[in-house]
Write a structure and sequence with these properties.
- With 125 residues, the chain is mainly α.
- It folds into 2 domains: 13-76, Arc Repressor Mutant, subunit A, CATH 1.10.10.10; 81-121.
- It has helices at residues 13-26, 39-46, 50-62, 81-105, 110-121; strands spanning 66-69, 73-76.
- The chain has a two-stranded antiparallel sheet with strand order 1-2.
- The longest helix is centred in the C-terminal third of the chain and has 25 residues, at 81-105.
- The protein is elongated, with a radius of gyration of 18 Å.
- The two termini are 33 Å apart.
């Protein structure tokens, strides 16, 4: 797993780590039961505070993506398909809201957006 951090992205470092691990789980790069790097080793690898990595791991555990076993490490939790679907629906909703805002600023009608949407889904572009 390769995590690339950006200081200029506007996304907090712990959230970038959290998002990178989620994406690795979604894409099956990380599979159920896979062991994650220790907090300290990932912090050393990324050259950041171990508290930042710990916060990312804590958030991942709170949301059900990983399970930490005291003295053994952190592991990818069994996939909760409903949780994964909700996560992606939230992401889609954010993009739709962005599309809505752009269309209002550019005076693009709902029908034009729907037409574009249908073309994309039919792979006509």
């Amino acid at each position: 797993m390769n995590i690339i951090l950006s200081n200029s992205s506007g996304i907090l470092i712990f959230e970038q780590i959290e998002n990178a691990i989620k994406e690795a789980i979604f894409s099956n790069e990380l599979k159920e039961g896979d062991m994650l790097p220790s907090v300290r080793s990932l912090a050393n690898e990324l050259k950041i505070s171990f508290l930042t990595v710990k916060k990312a791991y804590d958030e991942l555990e709170k949301s059900g993506f990983i399970k930490t076993v005291q003295g053994k490490g952190s592991f990818v939790a069994p996939k909760n398909l409903e949780l994964m679907k909700e996560e992606k629906l939230k992401e889609i909703q954010e993009h739709i809201e962005e599309i809505y805002n752009i269309s209002k600023m550019a005076n693009i009608s709902e029908d034009e957006i729907k037409e574009l949407w249908n073309m994309i889904f039919r792979e006509e572009i």
